[in-house]
Amino acid sequence: MKIHEFQAKQIVAQYGVAVPKGRVAATAGEARAIAQELGGKVVVKAQIHAGGRGKGGGVKLANSPDEAAQVFSQIMGMQLVTHQTGPHGQKVKTVLIEEQMPIARELYLAVLIDSASGRPVMMASAAGGMEIEEVAAKTPEAIHRVTIDPVTGFQPHLARELCFALGLTGDLMKPATQLMSGLYDAFIAKDASLAEINPLVVTTDGRVLALDAKMNIDDNALFRHKELEALRDKDEEDPSEVAAAEKGISNFIKLDGNIGCLVNGAGLAMATMDSIKFAGGEPANFLDIATANDVNKVVDALKIIASDPNVKAILVNIFGGMARVDVIAQGIIEAQHQMPTAIPVVARLAGTNVEEGERLIRESGLPVIRAEELGDAAKKAVEAARAAA
Ligand code: ADP
Ligand code: MG
To answer: What kind of fold does domain 239-388 have according to CATH?
Structure first.
């Protein structure tokens, strides 16, 4: 789950990360009042779940309360396009007003999980404000990494190592160390998969602050963070993924092609994607129904897949283990009865109760396209999608 900058700042601030003073404004009048409180000079910042807002015109300085109100009106409601939003951009519905900081240096700091070591790593770079992907591509030696032992936590010597690498010496070391360990603590406490400060700034008067903050929370850990539930912003998420989550289907991933996929198991999902690509097609999504033995769930799943206007064919690839093929077959039949548009369905069914499943589909008389094995199923799905497109 992604959250907004202002929410991430509230969280990391609770763990000792210094952030600028600021508040969200709902109206131009409120923006003016907040700017007044903050001493007049502020930054007006669009809150969307995408980076690159500054370059896209979503982060602007205002040097008086009146200007803050004016800039607020420009940013609130705008369709903000950044390199992360796609060409249509994202509508700005929340705006943060924050005190302007006198910036001397912009740095980069993040905590994430390193899949190679299976441990958190803290990454830092003196090239802040820039996209870290760009730094990694052009000057990988500018990125410093320390691996953290989760048992002992973020040790002072790791902070010192990063401080030296970033040139944060003398009086800057203490506040920088506090910020680093605060960021690590927030990352662990909230089961984050990423906590990123870009830029981390040193001010002209010697303070070290997080000017931007980004946090992604591991969806699989959300059940133990009821306090984070309210931070979900469904307007920022893909509507079909939201619909899936509301039906209790957590394994639905939207992609860019035109073949919808109903599968069971992550490995089968990957193999199905590969087979579709190999057959010359592109998956529109995949939905992993896991071990659900519930006709209604199968119907919900197929409806969610079909609700994407890009979907021109659906490939059902089920290897029944705990999930029974006859239940899946009933779901396919029921969904065909309920669905307003007739999207061709290709079914490759195997495993538990497959004979009963086959019989149900045969006797339903519905035009379900049958396939014996995966390669054949993918080919038929690609053909059906082409014919329908
Ligand atoms: P994004 O990463 O989406 O572009 P940031 O929050 O990083 O958004 O803001 C972009 C740039 O705007 C920063 O790199 C910084 O130079 C400037 N900026 C952001 N917040 C402030 C602030 N409170 N005071 C001064 N400058 C700011
Ligand atoms: Mg930023």
So the answer is: Rossmann fold (3.40.50)
